[in-house]
Amino acid sequence: MELHVVITGDKDLSGQLYRQLHEAIRSGRLAADAQLPPSRLLAGQLKISRKTVSEVYARLTFEKLLVGRVGIGTFVAPQAAARVARAPARPLANHAAVEKWRTLELPLRHPPAAGTARYEFLGGSPAIELFPHADWRRCTLHALRENARTRALYGPAEGQPELREAIARHVGFARGVRCTPQEVVVTSGAQQALALLARVLVEPGGTAVVEDPGYPQARLILGATGARVVGVPVDAEGIVVDEIPDDARLVYVTPSHQFPLGMPMSEPRRRALLARAGEIGAIVVEDDYDSEFRYEGRPTDSLQGRDDTGNVALVGSFSKTVSPSLRLGYTIAPPAVSQALANVKHLVDWHTPTQTQVALAKFMADGDLQRHIRRCHAAYGERRERLRARFADDLARWFELVPTVAGFHVAALARRPLDIATLVNLARRVDVGLYPLAPFYATTAPRDGLLLGFGAIDAADIDPALDRVRAVLEQLG
Fold first, then answer.
1. What is the CATH number of domain 153-365?
2. How confident is the model over 299-357, as pLDDT tens digits?
3. Please, is 38 exposed, middle or buried when counting C-beta atoms within 10 Å of its C-beta (0-12, 13-18, 19+)?
4. For the domain bounded by 13-76, which CATH number is listed?
């Protein structure tokens, strides 16, 4: 890599080089301990004599801005940079638009690793300790070989054919989805899938419906397109279909495991939702984010699997089943929508990283995904039972769990008035990460309660963590 220095003319060559290097170091553009090119190399790059470069290096070394290391090279001295304060920026013409995004509240933004508690009930985080590193390494090596064979060209916006085929087989087997590989669009996570659907289906000023309480990112993504976002309440059976407005063009739901409360949508409510979507010509976006983990009751088909009119688009993610670090998701949209989605995907992102796609396709084809899901299912089932036992016993004075049959989070509703914010703060002081339900409500009155994720906490840690929570609750009276 060449060092950015510009020499003009043939006069004061030493002065030009000195001033530029001095400013680059003092401003911090050349960071402490950054290695400078050898004098011979820099001289050749700038078309000046090596003696000129050596003199400048010697002068900066004398001023303690550079330091020479015998046998290694010349480096920027530690603590040499003293950043120059920038002049106050003038107000931008679009300041209001920038400020709207700068102040945006993101309730599901996960804390950095350094900010997590010893005992974390963080929703949406899978069991990273169960990640099959050896299997994934083998699949990654396969992807590297394929990458070399195909000369690492740009890939199709819809996704790698082998991954689209693997996804179609998986969702057909596990979720009763009816689709061909050609209807699958691979995305960089489920959030991108939703963002693409929002761009295609809702014009500025159009109406989009979300569950309330519901997934905050869905509400924010739809609002960012200029849509009029309407929150429709949920009850014990799911979204209240009768309150979906006639002008809705998109209805976002989580029928298998309502987010955040957790109950599944009832069969009558599913039929009513599909009928309502067909009546008004809306697309139902079914977020099937963690339904692979089912613990009781009979399996239910996806909404997409029972849709005969082309009104359901399914969104899925590998963040919950494999790892969030993959940033891989997909959407399966009706034929009338899928090509438009691929076009928008090409425009905003071109394609999701092909090497990761090929590795995941191999991971699925070899049966590694199913084996990993079974391992996680057993671990999550044990953690779920431990939580249910405690909230049916000594924590029942304060909370009741919402009945749920899938996923790896549960909602605990307060039985009596509780200062949830104080509870969360005091729990953090004793190294327990708790998260309130209130941020998931938009227009309806929030219920006092907690969202308890059990993917990121080991089963052996649940009782010690809840002992601390009980002590805090007793302290609160």
1. 3.40.640.10
2. 677 899 999 888 999 999 999 999 999 999 999 998 889 899 999 999 999 999 999 99
3. middle
4. 1.10.10.10
